[in-house]
Amino acid sequence: MTLIVCESLVRIYQTGPVEVQALQGLDLVVEKGEMVAVVGASGSGKSTLLSILAGVDAPTAGRAQVEQWDLLGMSRADRVRYRRHTVGFVRQQTASNLIPYLTARQMVDLPMTAARTPAGVRKQRSGELLEALGVAAFADRKPGQLSGGQQMRVAIAVALANQPHVLLADEPTGELDTATSAEVFGALRDVNRDLGVTVVVVTHDPAVSGQVERTVAIRDGRTSSEVLRRTATADDGNTHVIAEEYAVMDRAGRIQVPRDYREALALTRRVRLALEPDHITIRPDA
Ligand SMILES: Nc1ncnc2c1ncn2[C@@H]1O[C@H](COP(=O)(O)OP(=O)(O)OP(=O)(O)O)[C@@H](O)[C@H]1O
């Protein structure tokens, strides 16, 4: 069951005469129930991708679909509905997710009030969510009375208030120390596993991306490679994690050969391709 499809996604920002191509034909498919980490250097387009998926920003060209929603051709009313019910979004700066004068419970309540959820349901659900994220004890505290990790967990609870099918998190552990970051990441995994929410998380943190089954790397506004991890059991009964890196091929059949491979064999403009029974070889031109 495919939940998110991005095909040849392009986002161009125009500031005066300057044009920045933040996304340059990005391809991404996410299945329902997956937890995917998106990694890439600063400026590679990760936040742009997440803002588009969150319905906050609109793509310039290409295709972006989440469930039945076409993110390029959505009306304003549909966009509001989409943002309210289909996706939950946790922004990069912890503080920007929270309202300083409201308590944790009031903040989780707010999106449900906007969606006209009956008071009884709101009360029960905010209690359950704060409990699920391990912050029930701080329900009556305001953001200033919470640690960074607790604030982030409250922000996740707020994002989940209207029971979205997708949770998008932009660098949720970026401002946290290692131990707190592991805790917050654990909370995201619980949300994915226990509530069945599909999670897409942008991160710089290799420790974070090392803990998900699938990591997608973005380079220059395109998906460049993916790492899939699975747990295998050896003959001695011990389990270990096997990580395999894949290149991503777009619809036109283009793949990017990693720089170290190109340099090792001095591959430049032209290469020889040969189809073998079960693989393809790439050789230097000479
Ligand atoms: N609103 C905007 N106006 C103009 N240019 C923008 C805007 N938002 C992003 N960009 C540019 O688009 C490119 C991609 O930015 P983006 O924030 O998506 O990258 P990122 O991978 O999330 O980076 P970081 O890890 O530093 O947050 C950058 O060159 C950035 O300067």
Which hetero ligands occur in this complex?
adenosine-5'-triphosphate
Oligomer: single chain
Which outline best applies?
globular
Could you say which structural class the secondary elements and strand pairing correspond to? alpha/beta
Task: Note the main sheet.
Answer: 7 strands, mixed
Percent of residues in beta strands: 25-35%
Tell me the helix content: 25-40%
Number of strands: 13
Radius of gyration (Å): 21 Å
**Parts with pLDDT < 50 across at least 5 consecutive residues:** none
- Count the DSSP helices: 8
Strands side by side in the biggest sheet: 6-7-8-3-9-10-11
Q: Whole-number average pLDDT?
A: 90
SSE pattern? EEEHEEHEHHHEHEHEEEHEE
How widely separated are the two ends? 46 Å
Organism: Paractinoplanes aksuensis
Keywords: ATP-binding, DNA-binding, Nucleotide-binding, Transport
Domain ABC transporter: 4-245
InterPro entries: AAA+_ATPase, ABC_transporter-like_ATP-bd, ABC_transporter-like_CS, ABC_transpr_LolD-like, MacB-like_ATP-bd, P-loop_NTPase, SpoVT-AbrB_dom
What does this structure look like?
The chain has 286 residues and is an alpha/beta fold. The protein has a domain of 25 residues. The protein is 29% helix and 32% strand. The chain has 8 helices and 13 strands. A 7-stranded mixed β-sheet has the order 6-7-8-3-9-10-11, sandwiched between helices. Strands 2-1-4-5 form a 4-stranded antiparallel β-sheet, with helices on one face. Strands 12-13 form a two-stranded antiparallel sheet. A hairpin with a 2-residue loop joins strand 9 and strand 10. The longest helix is centred in the middle third of the chain and has 18 residues. The mean pLDDT is 90. Bound molecules: adenosine-5'-triphosphate. Adenosine-5'-triphosphate binds next to strand 1, strand 2 and helix 1. InterPro entries: AAA+_ATPase, ABC_transporter-like_ATP-bd, ABC_transporter-like_CS, ABC_transpr_LolD-like, MacB-like_ATP-bd, P-loop_NTPase, SpoVT-AbrB_dom. One of its GO terms (molecular function) is ATP binding.
